[in-house]
Amino acid sequence: MNEVLRKVFLALEGAWNTLGLRLVDIKIEFGNTADGELVVADVIDNDSWRLRDQDWTELSKQRFRDGDELSAVEEIYQLVARLTERIRIPRQAIVLWRGSKKDNFPETPGLPASINRIEVTFSGHKQPIACLRRLEELQRDFPDSGVILAIAGRSNGLGPMLAAHTTWPVISVPPGIKDFPENIWSSLQMPRDVPNATILDLDNAFSYALNILSVKNPIIYMGQRFAIEERMES
């Protein structure tokens, strides 16, 4: 029950964060299905939480408890109702981009269902025009943003080439770093306006990508924050 409660709170916290609001606390009631499954058995609305804006102004039922005029309370409820309609799960992608078929696509265990996994194989050196065309298609197909993990052996120049032509974050994850350690400089020492990140550990690269996407995605935010809190409490 505690885990479900925390995840519900974090998902809602992430949702309100996208609108610049702060979820302070929440009340949730639980129940059991006929099969014995524990579920949230309550309507979650402006009577169930305390919600505040950036100026720490109360936007929930607490205004009624504090004795505000009913007209002011009604206005706050209407505002929250309008804001609730703006909450959504964005269409985002993590793009695994390799330079050739000799580079292996990694497994992505635990990738949330709300994130699309896209695989691309184009060489930044040999197929630059094809790279730019595919990049344009991806940005059109996923207007809510994405993150590119560039996985290219040897030269490791794919990530910087892509980073110079997109506003999406690009993370270079050189797979052959043990055999060609000098190639890391191909994605570390970049000229101006080529904002490419380099992460050697693939798990950390995925975690970093999810952190980036979590800013707009309350489901990803919930998963990332829950994992952090679990580590802190262990």
From TrEMBL:
* GO molecular function ontology, one term from the record: phosphoribosylaminoimidazolesuccinocarboxamide synthase activity
Q: Which reaction does it catalyse?
A: 5-amino-1-(5-phospho-D-ribosyl)imidazole-4-carboxylate + L-aspartate + ATP = (2S)-2-[5-amino-1-(5-phospho-beta-D-ribosyl)imidazole-4-carboxamido]succinate + ADP + phosphate + 2 H(+)
**Coiled-coil ranges from the UniProt annotation:** none
UniProt keyword terms in alphabetical order: ATP-binding, Ligase, Multifunctional enzyme, Nucleotide-binding, Purine biosynthesis
Q: Which family does it belong to?
A: In the N-terminal section; belongs to the SAICAR synthetase family.
Q: Which PANTHER family match?
A: MULTIFUNCTIONAL PROTEIN ADE2, SI:DKEY-6E2.2
Q: What is this protein called?
A: phosphoribosylaminoimidazolesuccinocarboxamide synthase
